[in-house]
Design brief:
This protein is an alpha/beta fold. The protein contains 14 helices and 22 strands. Strand 5 and strand 6 form a beta hairpin. Belongs to the phosphohexose mutase family.
């Protein structure tokens, strides 16, 4: 297999590809052969990282509900076991559980793989990798793929040394976390009297109902799509998907639930719905978890991605007394910055993207949707005892404004270089016009707080595509229109940047 083909499987800090035919124009490139080679290469990488020989390593493999998961897991296991490493089959699991398999006393794996493509359609699949330091970095994946291209596929009729029910161990860990938060025991049914509905989207999150909520006494009537089904027949398991969010909103309201929870396929993301059906995502979910954490971490820093709004900054800093560090997009970027701050002695309890990826300092910096749900449910139970609603935590968060995102195509051959020039000139023009440019780590951000407009915009360059996204938010439609007008003026004259979408 050529380096070119394997390198095309890299997707930031993991591997993604098309694993089965079924979508017109999309052809298989994540094959069993590729998984086999990548498995071998992961062992070679892990040997150097751990300072152990292959036959001293124990590696776990889990998968999500996708129809190609079992065969890819088997192929990867054949590659891994051919090196002499011991492979443990964890079966249906979650991405956070596969990291925790390195932590749990019952497993203590040296490394682990999760076969998943997160929220992508049924024909896609991928591989996420973990070692004791957490998820691998972009450079690590590049090294593994380059190594894999020089290897030969290996066969093994019995690649798994053992099977292990990791999901039950992980669920017990989450269940006991709730009990500890509520100073209770399972037998005391600490969630009795609460009604919580879950939408698993036929992904991997169904266990959250059967193994956590019901044993602790919660009423879960109305929960839906709990059975794993890799064809995802009801909706895409993605909290950001409009159809998925509408489904959990409807289920929450119809069943008069106190809270609705929705997870993505591999359960590293979640979002919530209040009893009114109001969705809690993007700014509001970051605000909610920040409010939950604020009493235990006064004056601490919350790290977010670059597209959070000024209303979130106002809430975090003026209402909660926290600091807001708006960093770069990409959940690994946000998590790494949170880790960096804590290593410097700057307390940062939470790193969270508007996509719903959130990691807690006190949970191994792991983006774990189920663990976030546990924190949320614990806070719900505490609030309920005081006759409060969970939404009271963010009652002072200003209402969302009028948002828009435009994506400008770059027609230049070297799109990155051209995009950088656009950003430099855009910033220069903004400064000449005496506009307000707050501290920013990605692209150019402008805040508007005057008689002409109230809101903000952010122009940035896509990491991988010849596109420049522009995010705009105005407090009212009039504010948004004024900001669009300013954006047009600042973007005029760039012949290789297609801004015609601003005219619509």
């Amino acid at each position: 297999m050529s380096e070119l083909n394997l390198m095309k499987l890299q997707n930031g800090s993991d591997v993604r590809g098309i694993a089965i035919e079924g979508v017109e124009g999309e052809h298989v490139n994540l094959t069993d052969k590729a998984a086999n080679l990548i498995g071998q290469a992961f062992v070679l990488w892990l040997e150097k990282k751990c300072g152990k020989k292959a036959n001293e390593l124990k590696i776990g493999i889990g998968r999500d509900a996708r129809i190609t998961g079992e065969k890819l897991a088997l192929a990867a296991a054949e590659g891994i076991s051919s090196t002499g490493a011991k492979v443990v089959n964890c079966g249906l699991a979650t991405t956070p559980a596969m990291f925790m398999s390195i932590v749990f006393d019952q497993t203590k794996f040296d490394g682990s793989l999760m076969i998943t493509a997160s929220h992508l359609p049924f024909n896609r699949n991928g591989i996420k990798f973990f070692n004791v330091d957490g998820g691998l970095e972009h450079e690590d994946i590049e090294e593994i793929l380059k190594t894999a291209q020089n290897l030969t596929p290996q066969k093994n009729s019995s690649p798994f040394a053992e099977n292990f029910d990791l999901l039950s161990i992980y669920a017990e860990h989450l269940k006991q976390t709730i009990c500890k938060e509520l100073n209770s025991t399972e037998s005391e049914k600490p969630l009795a009297g609460l009604k919580i509905v879950v939408d698993a989207g036929n992904g991997d999150a169904g266990f959250f109902v059967d193994k956590i909520l019901i044993p602790l006494g919660a009423n879960t009537e109305g929960s839906e799509f709990l059975e794993p089904d890799g064809m995802f027949p009801n909706h895409i398991p993605n909290p950001e998907n409009k159809q998925a969010m509408q489904a959990i909103q409807k289920a929450t309201v119809q069943n008069k639930a106190d809270l609705g929870l929705i997870f993505d396929t591999d359960v590293d993301r979640m979002s919530a719905v209040f009893h009114t059906g109001e969705e809690v995502n993007r700014d509001s979910i970051i605000a909610l978890f920040s409010a939950i954490l604020a009493p235990d971490f006064p004056g601490s820093t919350i790290v977010t991605d670059s597209v959070t709004s000024d209303r979130l900054t106002f809430f975090l800093e003026k209402k909660l007394g926290l600091k807001h560090l708006r960093y770069m997009r990409g959940y690994k970027n946000v998590i790494d910055k949170c880790r960096e701050l804590n290593e410097k002695g700057i307390v940062s309890p939470l790193a969270m993207e508007t996509s719903g990826h959130g990691a807690l300092k006190d949970n191994y910096y792991l983006d774990d949707g189920a663990f976030l749900a546990v924190k949320l449910i614990s806070s719900l139970a505490k609030a309920s005892k005081e006759n409060k609603k969970i939404e009271s935590f963010i009652s002072e968060l200003p209402p969302a404004g009028i948002e828009a995102e435009c994506r400008f195509k770059i027609k230049a051959e070297d799109f990155k270089q051209y995009g950088k020039k656009v950003l430099e000139e855009f910033k220069s023009r903004a400064i000449k016009n005496k506009l307000n440019l707050p501290e920013n780590f990605e692209g150019v951000r402008i805040s508007f707080h005057d008689k002409n407009a109230e809101g903000w915009l952010l122009l940035r360059l896509s990491l991988h595509d010849p596109v420049m996204p522009l995010n705009i938010e105005g407090k009212t439609q009039k504010d948004k229109d004024a900001i669009v007008k300013t954006a047009k003026e600042l973007l005029s004259g760039f012949e290789l940047l297609d801004t015609t979408v601003l005219d619509n």
